[in-house]
Amino acid sequence: MIDSHAHLAMIEAEARPGVLARAAAAGVTTILVPATGPADLDAVAGLAAEGEGRIVGAVGVHPHEAGRCDAECRRRVERLLQAPGIVALGEIGLDYHYDLSAREDQRRVFAWHLALAREHGVPVVLHHREAWADFLAALDAVPGVRGVAHSFTEGAAGVEEMARRGLWVGISGMVTFRRADNVRAAAREAAPGRLLVETDAPYLAPVPHRGKPNEPAYVRLVLEEVARIRGVDAGALERETDAAFAALFLAGR
Ligand SMILES: [Zn+2]
Description:
42% of the residues lie in helices and 15% in strands. It is α/β, with parallel strands linked by helices.
């Protein structure tokens, strides 16, 4: 079982051994750790370098941090893309809900990452919130980039848009939230080979841990809920999502 999105770099170093032990005990074999910006790029690279394939990383600048993505930061991202255990660019995208960076900066930095992904042939980890039209437009401007739209909330129609672009969809613990019918619709509709599960730890802890710190071990709760929604056996879904992850992030490495 794979947690395709967990911010281990945001979990305190002293807490990490326990978090990783509980993940292993829950059957988690691989964790993808995305970076969010200049502050955690090196921490993510360090975790990936020492992860022995069980922890892999993505380097990039989250839309919240786009205003801090200067030339030096872009050089660091480009250099770290070659570092051991780094399998993707991310997390990158657009977030007009919090608007923590100017939208113009967000669009420019997102476009830069997508062009870099295409140039190097690496997959991307995508974040989007309340920016759907601009998000699709940015993707369409750089066709052929492979990646996952993580913690997907856009429902069945959104899944269709992602499928048309050859993109994967990541389902988080939100799928267990009472009001998240849009997430459940996405979980139901995604094609088997294009579906990933994730925790987005330390955020978005699934029921019954909602409101508490999230951790990769809880990806089992996400997997079981998605299996229930799809009416399939959890073991079969585990094999499918593991294979979908490997096809996106580990092929050719
Ligand atoms: Zn994230």
